TrEMBL record:
<protein>
    <submittedName>
        <fullName>PREDICTED: SEC14</fullName>
    </submittedName>
</protein>
<dbReference type="InterPro" id="IPR036865">
    <property type="entry name" value="CRAL-TRIO_dom_sf"/>
</dbReference>
<dbReference type="InterPro" id="IPR001251">
    <property type="entry name" value="CRAL-TRIO_dom"/>
</dbReference>
<dbReference type="InterPro" id="IPR036273">
    <property type="entry name" value="CRAL/TRIO_N_dom_sf"/>
</dbReference>
<dbReference type="Pfam" id="PF00650">
    <property type="entry name" value="CRAL_TRIO"/>
</dbReference>
<dbReference type="Pfam" id="PF03765">
    <property type="entry name" value="CRAL_TRIO_N"/>
</dbReference>
<dbReference type="InterPro" id="IPR011074">
    <property type="entry name" value="CRAL/TRIO_N_dom"/>
</dbReference>
<feature type="domain" description="CRAL-TRIO">
    <location>
        <begin position="79"/>
        <end position="239"/>
    </location>
</feature>
Amino acid sequence: MGIVSQEAIKQFQALMDQVDEPLKRTFQNVHQGYPLETFGRFLKAREWNVAKAHKMLVDCLNWRVQNEIDNILAKPIVPTELYRSVRDSQLIGLSGYSREGLPVFAIGVGLSTFDKASVHYYVQSHIQINEYRDRIILPSASRKYGKPIITCVKVLDMTGLKLSALSQIKLLTIISTIDDLNYPEKTNTYYIVNAPYIFSACWKVVKPLLQERTRKKVQVLSGCGKDELLKIMDYGSLPHFCKREGSGSSRHSQNGAENCFSLDHHFHQQLYNYIKQQSLIKEPVHPMKQGSFHVDVPEPAAEGTQIAKTIESEFNKFGNGNGLSDSLDDLKINGD
């Protein structure tokens, strides 16, 4: 870390020493014993501008307090059938760890439908996974590897991406805005696999709109990406959709325990049991009630709004101007 970076962190720390006690308490759940590294994340997200990074972090902490984010891991999505529906339509899971100890999160972008519950449940589920990652998964990895591990890698499966994904852009913009403003710089690299032609076309248009810092994180891999991913992780940590060649990636594998999207996978079993246990500790005398945990969604940044509009425009071109159909998702591209 350079002299300029160290000085910026010192200035940032001095500013944060002055915040109110409720913000200091929730900040402990954010940094998990690594405050300097957390200052570094927010500074990086604001191009090392101390004043802007400080405002971003204070806004984040106020959002956490106002929306009781510290308690979200004690708010289960019940009944189990509803949670299973969320998991079947919001495809995300932890498949393993890289050789450097970074958690590997798999996301089924193309096959996620987000049509089994209200938006609030999907937002609640996403934040719970973020908080479980930051409060349980990353601290555990840090202890195991004897060093601060504060980021993860994500493998995005584009199998099945269709023009109908246009209907999901609003929800995805909400989720990405929450991540950008409240969980910045938590992803080390995004690996795109099983990318159809429609993704390639959109990516060429969206890529120039991204900040250089973000562009450098995205790697579009050939096919299922297995060969490239095996350079950074063992075979056992590969997401299930990277273990097959061709277009055989699927939402469900024959063995649910191997499919990291499934509620039967050990990660989701541990997560769900943890949330249920926390709910009993927090409110032992009250039965668990069905109902989503509403979270105020921040306004998207100008960059995010522009990207969402550009993606929507490109999808519309495919649907209208070029006469291309959903069959395009059978075509694959090589990484740039």
